[in-house]
Amino acid sequence: MPMTYVSGAFSRPVVTDPDSQSAVSFLGGLVRMRATAPDTDGAFAILEHEGERGYMSPLHLHDADEETFLVLDGTLRVEVGERVLSVGSGGLTLLPRGLAHGFVVTSPQARFLTLHTPAGFDRFVAEVGASPQDSATKPPPDPAELTRIAARHGIQIVGPPLLP
Question: Which InterPro entries does this chain map to (predicted)?
């Protein structure tokens, strides 16, 4: 049986190194923009997250993108619908759009990638985040403002942040 390849809008190679990628302080962690909507013509975005124990997201869902977590180091507790999972180094979590989920770092430190298909979440992170140098003077948005910003990016916040 012949193999079928599906071609997306993404049409040019993207090669970056850590020093050339933007990074923002986001909800208590550091997020490096590994591949963004402009890089991939909107096909996907890859973000690298680093955070200490307690770095977390509120319970939320994405209206327009699937999200994949790949844990590189450390451990996350991921709440997915009614399930609560412990995901350690090498663990992968695939989340379809429209499914409520959240995460919290439970190890002393963690580093993980998120893949968003299609892109768009990267724009939310860029809007909410602050440059690492400005993070001490620019506090994260309060929950009501975060909810408003999220809604503009097709994200519904449906519950409080997870606790470690």
Answer: Cupin_2, QDO-like, RmlC-like_jellyroll, RmlC_Cupin_sf
